[in-house]
């Protein structure tokens, strides 16, 4: 826990949970770890009012609030303040976890986790990192559509041609776009795969992603020519 304490010494945290006991427990643990707790509220509108247009480093957000609000609207409202979102979740609500991650939450930590793990997760998110843990992986694995990078039509066209083996210059020529534009599409494709936890730094990785997502048909063996 000492690492989390060091990382959190200058970080600001807000807590949103409609159970007072949970808020009190998180507040005590955060303060013990050296965080400054700037707000603790039962819902997101109360949080926005408490922040008064300012932001904090991390908002620990209950996945399911009792005010009828949706996961997506809560996550996006918090992100609009400039704060990062760490979802505090009952682990078996995979669909809601997936929705929170798709809306832009930096990660999810189960409510059943030891408090030291929660503090460590806050430290990770406060450092500007994405929390990649089993809950994230489970949410992706539970829905292959979510795991896809949600590429646009032109991005799929670029990936199809590039992963098939064409040099980027020829991809641009075939699509009638500038080489620099094709490069921008390729950069966006890689960024989208990173966002869903499936990085593709090399051309071989991009080929694999294209096959996995049905953009290219499966290849025999290792697909020799297409990988060059």
Would you give an account of this structure?
This protein is of the alpha/beta class. The chain has twelve helices and five strands. It has a five-stranded parallel β-sheet with strand order 2-1-3-4-5, sandwiched between helices. Helix 1 packs parallel to helix 6 and helix 5 packs across helix 7. The longest helix has 17 residues. It is elongated.
Q: Report the major sheet.
A: 5 strands, parallel
What is the gyration radius calculated from CA atoms?
21 Å
Shape: elongated
Total DSSP E strands: 5
Please outline what is shown here:
The chain is of the alpha/beta class and 228 residues long. 51% of the residues lie in helices and 11% in strands.
Write the layout of secondary structure elements.
Elements: H1 2-8, E1 12-16, H2 20-32, E2 36-41, H3 44-51, E3 58-62, H4 71-79, E4 84-89, H5 94-103, E5 107-110, H6 115-126, H7 134-141, H8 144-147, H9 153-163, H10 168-175, H11 179-195, H12 203-212
Parallel strand pairs: 1-2, 1-3, 3-4, 4-5
Defining key terms:
alpha/beta; 5-stranded parallel sheet; 5 strands; disordered N terminus; disordered C terminus
